[in-house]
Amino acid sequence: MSAIETHAWEPGQAGARPPQAGDRSTPAWPSSCDGEAKPRMGFFTDTSLCIGCKACEVACKEWNQIPESPQGFTGNSYDNTVDLGADTWRHVAFVEQRKPLGADGLAQGIVEAASVESLIDQTGLQTYQDGDGMRWLMASDVCKHCTHAACLEVCPTGALFRTEFGTVVVQEDVCNGCGYCVPACPFGVLNQREGDGRVWKCTLCYDRLKDDKQPACAQACPTNSIQFGELTELREQAGERLEQLSAAGAEHAQLYLADEQDGIGGAGAFFLLLDDPEVYGLPPDPVDATHDLGSTWAAVGVAALGLGAAIAGAVLGGRR
Question: Residue 175 and residue 233: Cα distance in Å, rounded?
Fold first, then answer.
């Protein structure tokens, strides 16, 4: 199926273990899960290690046989895939940032500051990620495989389902192209393939997981920016990495989608960012679009009962 080299993934490497009673990290998945639930697997993407090589994009397309999706250079750095979609399941973002410079910045005086600013305009970035006055923020984005997945909840055909690994997958032979899931996703991940109409997205290489192999993107990543394993262990590793970066002076470093109390209940694919989510084009506070439906309908029911009681009272009172 694929020309990339594959190696069997050893479950022990990710700290895999049988599901434990009461363990929130390995819950029993919905009845759509075929067979016994396994430890929840996911991605931890450490953007501080990303070099923007796009090996993950290539491996993803090659393994999953995804059509090409060139959109040309946008003028925003070296990004030519722009965003996630039906034909782009991995997207490496390139964010160029100009560092604040001046008499109290990197330069010591007004003349030197002007000289440095001029040098930046002429030469641009000096290193792969952090240069004299400019820096690249690179990040490989992917479907988040949300704990509370609105796309799955609004799908009328059951094309979207939760696997035994806790991931969310589209069955292309069941999808009818209704598109309900597209606006439901708070991250804009889902899209319909042109000329096809059906929705396609990252499966976290479900076929490879069933054969005890890593997802293609994680295996292809040369810097270990994309880390794959059991979600609980990945979150522990991410917390330790955040502490390291914070101690090293990365003031804005933060974990994104690692909190089980956020609007989507945490994600199966979470990130360590070096700046605010908005800088990377990510929503700062994503919420499952169906999160409040229960309480909303309950309120509607109470209001309807109250209205009914008021009408009945008015009718009976009028008859007297």
Answer: 33
SS3 label, residue 61:
helix
| CATH level 3 topology of 26-97+142-289 | Alpha-Beta Plaits (3.30.70)
Number of Cβ within 10 Å of residue 212's Cβ equals 11
User: 170 and 203 in contact (C-beta within 8 Å)?
Assistant: yes
From residue 29, give the alpha-carbon distance in Å to each of 21, 25, 147, 184.
13, 11, 10, 21
Beta-carbon neighbour count of residue 227 at 10 Å?
21
- pLDDT digit string, tens, across residues 271-309: 999 999 999 999 999 998 776 555 554 656 667 777 777
Find out whether 285 and 262 touch, Cβ atoms under 8 Å.
Answer: yes
Q: Which residues pair with 256 in a beta bridge?
A: 271
Q: Does the reported pTM lie above 0.90?
A: no
- pLDDT tens sequence across 223-232: 999 999 999 9
Q: Judge contact between 90 and 226, C-beta under 8 A.
A: no
Residue 320 to residue 317: CA distance in whole angstroms: 5
pLDDT over 70 at 116, yes or no: no
For the chain, domain boundaries: 26-97+142-289
Question: Which residue, 220, 310, 237, is CA-closest to 6?
Answer: 220
- The tokens for 133 are 């006055």
